[in-house]
Amino acid sequence: MSNDAAPGRTIVILGALSAIAEASARRWAAEGAHLVLLARDPERLEAVAADLRVRGARVDTVAADLATVDAAATIDRIVAEHGRIDVALLAYGVLGEQARAERDPAEALRILQTDFTSAAGWCLALANVLERRGGGVLVVVGSVAGDRGRASNYVYGAAKGGLGILVQGIAHRLARSGARAVLVKPGFVDTPMTAHIARKGPLWAKPEAIAAAIVASSRAARGPVVVYAPWFWRWVMLAVRLVPAALFHRTRL
């Protein structure tokens, strides 16, 4: 069964105001997709929706705090209102402050709650819907930070690593249903989330490059469960994972 995002297909975007989500939505809008955007800020949500309508999309919006709202009830309501979900993109999260998280357990829990616990709730709710339908694809934005714990961001990395295992398990579960789940793992991306980090070197990518990988993953009837974006991060992280601990601990990554 094809998961192609053809005109008229319903695409649900969780965290629609993130730079990667907006870039993905613009690509789908150009194809005439029906977009259902979810995010917390209603005014910014309507501004993004207006731009996407000009680009060719039919757009509906749902203003909600994704970290606290009832995911299953919200997804069931979207299906009841719009018939079905062809593609679901989960693209929200917080980077947080590692140093603050080490001092303040509440900050660490905030990161883990947003990036793992609430995201897991949405993934499981969407998996149930796609499994019942027997088609569609769940695309989740993870991070290469989940590949190995590093002193500079291990709380964020732990949340993304856990989310990655969850999505791989969902993909395994859905494999015989006709539905799919894909984990897209970006490296350094030039977005407002990383505005405080010095941008330099060829490893940095624009949101549009990650969006290209997301949209391509949503189109394929079959494909890999884990997609690194850009592609070279697969090999960068393979090297990082293979570094012996005794040597790794001498670095300040």
Looking at the structure, the CATH topology is Rossmann fold
The residue ranges in which pLDDT falls below 50 over 5 or more consecutive positions are: none
Name the average pLDDT: 93
Order of the strands making up the biggest sheet: 3-2-1-4-5-6-7
Domains, number: 1
Q: Beta fraction of the residues?
A: 5-15%
CATH superfamily: NAD(P)-binding Rossmann-like Domain
Tell me the distance between the termini.
Answer: 43 Å
Q: What kind of oligomer do you see?
A: single chain
**Number of H/I helices:** 9
Instruction: Output the structural class.
Output: alpha/beta
Q: Tell how many strands the DSSP assignment holds.
A: 7
What share of the residues lie within helices? 40-55%
Shape: globular
Output the helix-strand order.
EHEHEHEHHEHEHEHH
Largest sheet, strands/sense/barrel: 7 strands, parallel
Write down the Rg: 18 Å
Query: What is the CATH class designation?
Result: Alpha Beta
CATH arch. level architecture? 3-Layer(aba) Sandwich
Family: Belongs to the short-chain dehydrogenases/reductases (SDR) family.
GO molecular function, one term: oxidoreductase activity
Keywords: Oxidoreductase
Protein name: Short-subunit dehydrogenase
